[in-house]
Amino acid sequence: MTPDETVVLARYVRALCPQQKFDEYTPDAWHDVLGGYPLAAARAAAAAVAGRQPFVSPAEIIDEIRKQRDARADSFQGPGLPAEIPDADPDDVPAYLAALRAQRTRAADGFELKPRKVATLIAGVGREVPPEITEVKRPGPLGIDCPNCGAAIGRPCRTPGGSERAPHAARVGRKDADAEKAEAERRRAASARFLARQQAEGRLLGDGVIDFEGGAP
Fold first, then answer.
1. Is residue 136 part of a domain?
2. What is the pLDDT along the chain (217 residues), one digit of tens a residue?
3. Structural domain range at position 59
């Protein structure tokens, strides 16, 4: 807002609030506070404030400008309002976000948003997908088909009976496969030690059945 426009705003507010006191220095003081705002936005804000109370201050005008900008930015794609697709490639995330921010700023400033033509919107349909996108694989053991049980990518491995189980060794890689093998060996050794201890204590009956009551065979 220029100094001359601030004079216009001061006269407008005086017309809205005839009981409010103004002098020849008022426009200069108001320009120091409101110079960074457009005249149209300040006039609309002053009218809104004057509709609620008999006096209007520069601080109240600024607060109302911010409220009106926020309201327009939040509802620029609401019911009955023209939707504008950001003019940027959605695959270019920084450019798309910049276009979206610019669009919201224009909406907040009160600029009319124009719907883009259908031909523009579908211009990128059917274009070739870059190989670096198509070749991306899901990380982790579920990122490949399981050669043991045939589980597809993203699906868990299964036992012969159909129950879910931890990924097979061929699916988790050499390091994890070694860990799985070592765990199996540890469990077998623990079972062997348990059976040997039971035999030493004389608690095994025929066919390897344990006598938990501790009685004699």
1. no
2. 999 999 999 999 999 999 999 999 999 999 999 999 989 889 999 999 999 999 999 999 999 988 887 776 655 554 444 455 666 676 777 877 777 677 666 666 555 555 555 555 556 555 565 555 444 456 677 778 888 888 888 888 888 888 888 888 777 765 555 666 777 788 888 888 888 877 776 655 555 555 555 544 4
3. 3-74
Number of helices (H) and strands (E) in the chain: give both, helices first: 9, 2
Rounded Cα distance, 52 and 67, in Å? 15
pTM of the model: 0.40
Q: What are 164's two structure tokens?
A: 């879910």
For residue 215, being part of any structural domain is answered with no
How many domains does the chain divide into?
3
Residues 61 and 82 both lie in one domain:
no
DSSP H or E stretch at residue 17: none
Distance separating alpha carbons of residues 4 and 31, to the nearest angstrom: 9
Of 54, 74, 94, the domain-final residue: 74
